[in-house]
Amino acid sequence: xxxxxxxxxxxVVVALVLGFVLPGDRNPPEAATAAxxxxxxxxxxxxxxxxxxxxxxxxxPPATPTPTTPPDAPxxxxxxxARAARANELGVVPVLMYHRIVAKPEQSLDRSVGELRAELTxxxxxxxxxxxxxxxxxxxxDVPAGRHPVVLTFDDGTPGHFALDANGAPAPDTxxxxxxxxxxxxxGFRPVATFYVNEDMFGLxxxxxxxxxxxxxxxxxxxxxxxxxxxxxxxxxxxxxAEIGDLERRIVELTGAHTATLAYPFGxxxxxxxxxxxxxxxxxxxxxFLAGWRPSESPFAAAFDRYAINRxxxxxxxxxxxxxxxxxxxxxxxxxxxxxxxxxxDGDPATITFPRxxxxxxxxxxxxxxxxx
Length: 373
Ligand SMILES: [Zn+2]
Description:
The chain is an alpha/beta fold. It has helices at residues 2-18, 30-39, 80-84, 113-125, 133-138, 175-185, 208-217, 237-255, 274-277, 323-326, 328-337; strands at residues 95-98, 101-102, 111-112, 128-131, 148-155, 194-197, 221-224, 261-263, 278-279, 283-284, 287-289, 312-313, 352-354, 370-372. The strands form five sheets. Strands 1, 4, 5, 6, 7 and 12 form a six-stranded parallel sheet that branches. It has a two-stranded parallel sheet with strand order 2-3. Helix 7 (208-217) links the parallel strand 6 (194-197) and strand 7 (221-224). The site of zinc ion has 5 residues, from loops.
């Protein structure tokens, strides 16, 4: 795996060179923004044209309802509780990206068990509530008023993420065990996360079915990360589909269910991104995640692209990959100091509340649910 991790680091560097739009004073130079625009795939076709799946097939992309509120009608006033909570459901959401969790970091992207525990504890104290990747892309964010969703994603399905002890419980000091520990100490901090796996699932061997069943039963989510951790940008359509489809078949065999989301290995996008999104009843994703260095748009924002969702690498403010500004410790600090930029829940999953000045950022098909103050 060391080579893979070096490559992942290289992809992050390349991406940094391309540049990304950042909030507030963190805007990259104009040229970098233009380069990114040129590299960004075109928006997806409307979800409503997607074929209906078989009951046993992969999930269909969510349908886009037609709004009944005319685009120029004023949005209704927010509920007093939402206003009091300073709700901003068009704010950004950190989707944290973890790789190996180990006792002692050895490679780029490794984080120690202690660092993971400290980061999750800080999130809990900052009022974050974990939601899964699938909940996030569906906009299914049942978070109490005044609190903030965060998505915890773990790539490559390594033993430090999850292992079973002799009694069939999660082994101590795995990511799963640490997350459950932090959740016990901080009521309301949901112990949920999404694991993007390859064919060697956590090194569980012949206990893979038992292990995945435990995860699913306990609210964790399995996502697709290709069979061999392939660089999809270098592959033909047929091979892209085999990499994703073969792993998907294996996951369905083990869990009885399709995955809802994909994360590109190395953040590398296929030449034609739609190859990775759906292949008949073999696979179909409601969201696709990149590697990254900035929080995601809210799933309710017009700018949200469900097939190119940004993630933030979990890391301290180290020099590598400009983590002083673009990794998790720096971003979480930035959002703590600039609370108006981040997603703050109104406490009601049915409504989407935000300050009136942000109104033009709401996705037009969600206008009926918009509330302002
Ligand atoms: Zn990976």
